[in-house]
Amino acid sequence: MGARRYGPDISHYLQPDNYAGALDDLSLSSDPLTDNRYTLAGANPINFVEIDGHTVEPGGGGSPQPQWTSGLTRRQQLLVRKLRSVSVDGIKIVNPRLVVIAAAKAHIVITLAVALLSQESGGGRSEWGHDQTIFIGGYDAAHRKHWGSIVTKAAYLAYKAERGPTGQGGMQGVGPMQLTWYGYQDLADKLGGAWRPLPNMIVGFRVVLANIRASGLRAGVAAYNGSGAAAAAYAQNVLAYERKWARILGLKSIQG
What we know:
- By secondary structure, this protein is mostly helical.
- Helices cover 41% and strands 5% of the residues.
- The protein contains eight helices and six strands, in the order E-E-E-E-H-H-H-E-E-H-H-H-H-H.
- The longest helix is centred in the last third of the chain and has 22 residues.
């Protein structure tokens, strides 16, 4: 199999995934509960494949192109059940199943994913932000209409019309990852809609991961919030959450 030898008689790799570093192995291709790096396609090769030997993607032998949300691996199901049963500092993850899927799709470690959601939206609530601009908490001051604190399609489309194609009308945090820049919101729209939690989280997670790859863990997390003292405090809070989530989930922290 090139990089790793595979034993078809035992349906396992004979060598572990070489991506051993926490910041290199940011997908869920290794078992987050057992750190098993010998499995193939998340132990579910019927519905998933590993096109690069590391990352689980849909497209196994069971279906030519299954829907990403159509099923979870056994390992992912265990993680979902665990997330449903625990909390950190009174924060529970709103939709563990979607979070696990989004983290896998974005290739980000689950402990960092839930830490970001804890900081951004109290565990993944699909809510409006409160930046002092348009649609504060879902209130459209221009038309004196309150759409409610939860982001809906109708409210988002009204916001986007006021925002404009390049954010010239103002930009507000949207959804679980509080996507604020118009470019990130548009990326989520291309995946199905920034008002929908799954595309919202995928884009937000990917942005954070790109920042980390460019600047390192702490600086990369801080960059998602901006710059200066507020961004540094943001990173401090997120990384504190990450350690707490890792401990309560029984996983290794990416901070060592």
